[in-house]
Specification:
By secondary structure, this protein is an alpha+beta fold. It is built from 30 helices and 18 strands. It is globular, with a radius of gyration of 28 Å.
């Protein structure tokens, strides 16, 4: 392909798209660290410059005015045109200040467009990288200009370092990137290059006036925001203590009540403790999801928890580029595709566990579901049996969270004789995993999560030190706790609603009556009711309703200022119980996920967290949860024991049904076809 053809293709990109490509930092999966207001102003500047290049507006030092009101075909650009038409003769700075709050919508639209054009690839957690097709082009001998992102950077590089005369759009891009102060992260700059950048920024009137307006706006933005910020309201302790949801353990409902009364940002002041500042509602969810990476970090509140495991830099505590690198390294291990490749073993392990269920027997719901999930997770993720360690490791982890994350117990409570005994299970587990993960033992075996972790340790022992493996290799058991509790809630919801139970059984029978389904059989249509049922379970009974973060850069959220060092409690699931997001929020309604309602398609639905720390294994978890619900429904009819059980919730350290919930096996609907067992590292004889 000739260069002229490439230029024609690249010219199809808008200025906002080219600016986003220039600012993208592939190491972190997001933009180079541009302060939020700076980024907003630069993006709006690019949109205004695009309208200028399309001959819709013109600008000089004094004013910005409409030239042609003909529609561009771009919804966001056309909305800006409409506003400019109403208020002509305003200057560029006025429009940048006015439109800056709209920058998020422009960024979202731009990123979506680049993904649709297969220039960028979107990853869970709101990360973006160069699409794999572009990487393959480079790998198989193509020039670096084979990708749009490299072509844009090559053009800008030539203008800066080879003294080529830049085009008007390149001048604008250079002006805006320079305004964001990230050229030093993109190119190695010397004094001559910096002088060249300054010279280019003076070449074009539109670029110069917009860049000047951005700079002037930035100079006063912090003062303006600080002056406008409001005092964070304080929750009445009396109202808190007498709230019915606090007593029942329904934390999302409690926080939704408080947000309705006090607003999206409020604080609770417990006696003799630091104030607890909460963010609750769809607007704060959106802010955390898209902007939180620049202002909030996770590592502070997890520092003590890490030390318990002898670790430093575990996945939940990482931020920035290290966090993204870890997620990329482990993405395949936590992917839905990895579990799909093990479906046959998943079915077998689930059946093996259910062979212990006898008609007429009573099962402790929470323990049964946790053990059932761990009977699958340990063999599939780390190729060992850890059922005998499950109780010790679970209780040790929960005590560590209560002591070091929630601060609800003194530190010595983690050093009692019983806790020291339970902690030894970590070393036992590590020895088992390492004993079966030698080259000879792994030959011919499907790759598991432990293989990924040990490979990362071998390739970069500083990034994944041996000290971190103690936590990382016990993570599947920790996951069994959360997924097991989600399964417990799902079983409660199914047993308490016989009509839904019957519909799920119908889907399960269609899938399993003629043998085990394959990946191609588990289509959205085939498990439609089950899928929507589980979505509603995750809305009504989210396992982790709150995320904790520390403010690392002062910020304004919904007109409330959060100073550096503030501990913030992100109540992402409070919106699950807000009527304006989910009408009749206390009603279990799986139809809310069907069009045209599609109530989950908003920042208000957040059962897996928000932003960069969105659960990496959410899609794998959805599949495993669906398979377990379907298999239980296919083989058994369950009922409550006693029959009049009313749901109680234990909220600490995460949400789960209380220990009183028990299921009675009322009927075995189908025989359990158990196949041979694939050997794993067995537990020692007791």
């Amino acid at each position: 392909m000739s260069l002229s053809t490439r230029e024609t293709e690249t010219q199809q990109l808008s200025l906002t798209e080219e600016l986003v490509l220039m600012l993208l930092n592939e190491e972190s999966g997001y933009f180079h660290q541009v302060p939020g207001w700076n980024l907003n102003c630069a993006i709006v500047g690019a949109a205004l410059a695009e309208l200028s290049l399309l001959s819709r507006i013109d600008t000089d030092v004094q004013s910005l005015f409409l030239v042609d009101r003909t529609r561009t075909g771009d919804r966001l650009l056309d909305s800006i045109l409409d506003e400019v038409a109403v208020e002509p003769q305003r200057n560029a700075q006025y429009w940048i200040e006015r439109l800056a709050p709209r920058a998020d919508a422009i960024i979202d639209s731009t990123l979506d467009g680049l993904v649709e054009k297969k220039i960028l690839e979107h990853h869970s957690g709101e990360f973006w990288t160069l699409a794999r097709s572009a990487w393959r082009t480079e790998m198989y001998g193509g020039a670096s200009e084979d990708s749009a992102i490299q072509f844009v950077k090559a053009r800008i590089s030539k203008a800066i370092f080879e003294s080529e005369i830049p085009s008007p759009r390149d001048v604008i891009i250079i002006c805006l990137v320079n305004t964001c102060d990230v050229f030093r992260f993109i190119f190695p700059l010397d004094e001559e290059a910096e002088e060249r950048i300054q010279a280019i920024c003076k070449m074009d009137l539109i670029g110069r006036s917009i860049a000047s307006a951005v700079t002037n706006t930035l100079a006063v933005s912090l003062v303006q925001h600080s002056a406008l910020s409001k005092k964070i309201p304080t929750v009445s302790l009396r109202k808190l203590l007498f709230n019915r949801h606090l007593r029942s353990g329904r934390i999302p409902s409690l926080l939704a009540d408080l947000a309705r009364e006090y607003g999206p940002v409020f604080q609770i002041r417990p006696p003799f403790q630091k104030p607890m500042i909460f963010l609750a509602g769809p607007k704060t969810n959106h802010w955390v999801h898209r902007r939180g990476r620049m202002y909030l970090r996770a590592r502070d509140y997890l520092a003590g928890f890490e030390k318990v495991y002898g670790a430093a830099g575990i996945l939940p505590s990482l931020d920035g580029a290290d966090h993204f690198r870890y997620r990329k390294s482990m993405a395949s291990g936590y992917s839905r595709a990895r579990l799909e490749g093990q479906l046959e073993n998943l079915f077998r392990l689930a059946r093996e566990h259910m062979t212990e269920w006898k008609v007429g027997s009573s099962l402790r719901a929470g323990t049964t579901c946790r053990m059932m999930i761990n009977a699958q997770n340990s063999p599939l993720s780390i190729s060992v049996d850890s059922q005998d360690l499950m109780d010790d490791l679970m209780k040790f982890k929960e005590r560590a969270l209560i002591v070091h994350v929630m601060g609800m117990m003194p530190k010595f409570m983690l050093k009692t004789p019983s806790m020291r005994r339970r902690a030894k299970g970590i070393e036992v587990l590590l020895e088992r995993v390492q004993s079966v993960h030698t080259p000879a033992q792994r030959a011919g075996q499907p790759r598991d999560l432990a293989d990924d972790l040990l490979s990362l340790h071998a390739s970069d022992p500083q990034f994944m030190p041996e000290s971190n493996l103690r936590f990382a290799l016990s993570a599947p058991i920790i996951a069994s706790v959360y997924l097991g509790d989600a399964l417990t809630f799902a079983m409660y919801a199914m047993v308490s609603q016989p009509e839904l139970y019957a519909k799920i059984q119908k889907e399960a029978d269609a899938l399993f009556d003629n043998g085990d389904p394959g990946v191609e059989d588990l289509t959205p249509a085939a498990i439609d009711v089950t899928h929507r049922f589980l979505m509603e379970c995750m809305r009504m009974y989210p396992i982790v309703p709150i995320s904790m973060r520390n403010v690392m850069n002062a910020c304004i959220v919904e007109d409330y200022q959060l100073p550096i060092g503030t501990r913030v409690y992100v109540a992402q699931t409070a919106a699950h119980y807000m009527p304006d997001v989910f009408p009749e929020p206390d009603k279990f309604d799986i139809d809310r996920y069907l069009p045209p309602r599609s109530e989950h398609r908003s920042p208000g639905y957040a059962p897996y967290g928000l932003g960069t720390h969105t659960c990496l294994g959410s899609r794998q978890m959805e599949l495993q949860l669906a398979v377990n619900v379907l298999m239980i429904a296919h083989h058994f009819t369950l009922e409550f024991h006693p029959a009049n059980y009313k749901l109680g919730i234990s909220p600490l350290p995460s949400l789960k049904p209380n220990k009183k919930l028990r299921f009675r096996i009322a009927e075995r609907r189908r025989e359990l076809r158990v196949t041979h067992t694939v050997p794993t590292a067995a537990a020692p004889a007791s």
